[in-house]
TrEMBL record:
Domain called PNPLA: residue spans: 15-175
The protein's name: Lysophospholipase
Record keyword Coiled coil present: no
Active-site residues (renumbered): 48, 162
InterPro entries assigned: Acyl_Trfase/lysoPLipase, NTE, PNPLA_dom
GO terms, molecular function: hydrolase activity
Alphabetical UniProt keywords: Hydrolase, Lipid degradation, Lipid metabolism
Organism: Denitrobaculum tricleocarpae
Span of the annotated motif GXSXG: 46-50
């Protein structure tokens, strides 16, 4: 190898984008900040919301996603939640799929040279599923099928749910696809216990009172079966968690423990951890501050990034 080619050589960079629902907007800030540092991924793996952002980057639709994220209000977010009475989840996900379809269209994995994998979980076997064929919309929808919240997806004769159950920060996927240097973005490093309110009060996992929002903006449903389901699911007694809160908090605990275990066994070269413990599950309307925190998180690990790159340059 010549001296010039040695200077121009850089490692094949993998970017592992973790799960985190609304906290996932931080991935946009991370990608923006990395680009300003001259770092662009060659491989992307994404779990749940990480798959959403990863697919948008792959298709050069990140600007569109960011504009949409910054335009979301609480009321608009509620309009995307097509609640179901009889299904495998509280939300069908049809409205969100329509939004993704509008921006991603029929784009498929095979249309792009960059390796990209969306991670999901086989609901029957518990196996980790790597989605890397077919349409991106189908794969992304499967990857963010949070159990109990979104209906599972039938993909290749398998019912699959959110990949966060088995691989919340998919470093191993980047490793398997040939990445030489891996940057991982963990959105859940500080969510357990950090949002507890003064006096021991239990916060809403959504970030706001979903039941009150539904009452205020869908009064016509009062007395319906759907209304009864909403009250049963989201109603909170004084200083007690709702059914929804118990379910999501439990998933957060499991996700946190799995992420810690897997990252210990499969450590990335650079670990980015945005501080998002104060962001609720459905606070998508806080995109401005979430994206800004993603950028700030990259600034905090700049020495690690430089060290990792220098190791590969020697």
């Amino acid at each position: 190898m010549s001296h010039d080619s040695e200077q121009n050589w850089r490692p094949r960079i993998g970017l592992a984008l973790g799960s985190g629902v609304a906290r996932g907007w931080a991935h946009i800030g991370v990608i923006r900040a990395l680009a300003r540092c001259g770092i662009k991924p060659d491989i992307i793996s994404g779990t749940s919301i990480g798959a959403v952002v990863g697919a948008s980057y792959l298709t050069d639709e990140l600007d569109t996603l960011e504009d949409w994220a910054r335009s979301i209000t609480k009321l608009r977010m509620l309009s995307y939640m097509d609640f179901k009475v009889s299904s495998g989840g509280l939300i069908g996900g049809r409205h969100l799929v329509e939004v993704m379809q509008k921006h991603l269209g029929d784009a498929a994995f095979e249309d792009y040279e960059m390796p990209f994998v969306a991670v999901a979980t086989d609901l029957v076997t518990g196996h980790e599923v790597w989605l890397r064929e077919g349409t991106l919309v189908e794969a992304v929808r499967a990857s963010f099928s949070l159990p109990g919240v979104f209906q599972p997806m039938l993909v290749n004769d398998r019912w699959v749910v959110d990949g966060a159950l088995v691989n919340p920060v998919p470093v191993s996927v980047c490793q398997a696809m040939g990445a030489q240097m891996i940057i991982a973005v963990n959105l859940n490093a500080d969510i357990i216990g950090k949002s507890r309110q003064p006096g021991g009060k239990i916060p809403t996992v959504a970030g706001f009172d979903l039941l009150e929002m539904m009452k205020e903006n869908a009064p016509a449903s009062s007395g319906s079966v759907l209304d009864a389901l909403a009250r049963r699911t989201f109603r909170r007694e004084p200083n007690q968690p709702s059914l929804f809160g118990v379910m999501i908090s439990s998933l957060n605990i499991v996700q946190d423990r799995i992420a810690r275990s897997r990252l210990a066994g499969e450590p990335p070269d650079v670990h980015i951890t945005p501080r998002l413990g104060q962001i609720g599950l459905f606070e998508f309307h806080r995109a401005d501050e979430i994206i800004a925190e993603g950028e700030a998180a990259v600034e905090r690990v700049l020495p690690d990034l430089r060290d990792a790159l220098s190791v590969f340059a020697t």
